Amino acid sequence: MDKFVKLTGVAAPLPVVNIDTDMIIPKDYLKTIKRTGLGTGLFAEARYNEDGSPNPDFVLNKPAYQNAKILVAGDNFGCGSSREHAPWALLDFGIRCVISTSFADIFYNNCFKNGILPIVVSQEDLDKLMDDASRGSNAVLTIDLEALEITGPDGGSIKFEVDAFKRHCLLNGLDDIGLTLEKGRSIDNFEKATAASRPWA
């Protein structure tokens, strides 16, 4: 998993509440267990017209936001089913950070396990960030996970909080497998000691 230390990029505004995982990645795209290629299906029902052409009114299709790395969204982001394809699709598109006033628990935890930083802010701070994100190509935010700070295009900053363990994992690029591998020497020592004490096993 890629480390997340500091991210600077365009933030796209998505002022919609209760965005569920089916909206993030529709069920038609759940036939694969690969984490790549899902970016094309991200918000597919809103991004594409019925004939498959891009919907010019959807924010991620607008020229200023086609390479967005940050999403500023309404309350209760990631609700609905627990599909892990939702963070996979966001990451494959290029989104590394989602900012909202609240997240569904399963989606929130899945983000950390896949290298995405979900940030919870107050409604007042979200309003400011939504305004920043509405500036098109000038909507550049910097997310500093070490300093726990969001810096806007005008230099203003907002502090945020993240669980210390989850922060450690993102800063060091550790998913569940990476965390296990950190204990590799201890695991090897345990297996050798077990083999020596129980040679018949």
Explain how this protein is built:
The protein has 201 residues and is an alpha/beta fold. It contains eight helices and seven strands, in the order βααβαβαβαβββααα. The chain has a seven-stranded mixed sheet with strand order 4-3-2-1-5-6-7. Pathway: Amino-acid biosynthesis; L-leucine biosynthesis; L-leucine from 3-methyl-2-oxobutanoate: step 2/4. GO terms for molecular function: 3-isopropylmalate dehydratase activity. Its EC number is 4.2.1.33. It catalyses: (2R,3S)-3-isopropylmalate = (2S)-2-isopropylmalate.
Keywords:
201 residues, alpha/beta, Aconitase, domain 4, 7-stranded mixed sheet, 8 helices, 7 strands, 33% helix, Aconitase/3IPM_dehydase_swvl
